[in-house]
Amino acid sequence: MSLRLDISDSLLHPQAAGALLHFIGKQRIIVFEAPMGAGKTTFIKELCRQLSVTGSMSSPTYSIVNEYVTNTGQKIFHFDLYRLKSSLELLELGFEEYIAANAYVFIEWPELAFPFMDSYIKVTIEVNKNIRYLCAEIITEL
Question: What is the Cα–Cα distance from 101 to 46, expressed in whole angstroms?
Fold first, then answer.
């Protein structure tokens, strides 16, 4: 099962975020694959708005992980793994506890995280002639 959405216009982001949240159902781990500057962080911020995050949201490029809280007290974790060099660094951050927390976990640059996850939603943002498409699919490793 998959989902494909046009997110070229920022006005489409709220609709696309709502559609993605509906698509993922009970899955809480969502990985984002896209080239630099494709809009991963911007789209994750919209997902957080849809989930009623209180407070500010920012890219975790240097902090590696940001924790957000919704108006109901639910935690959301936003990872940017671009600067990490090994899976050991991810383990030292306590990554396994984050993904076991039954909280939303959004992961940019997820390559090092794949060995620790058996199911997740893979979101790809494709850019073609200034048109951005968001493609989502359910991944289950058996």
Answer: 22
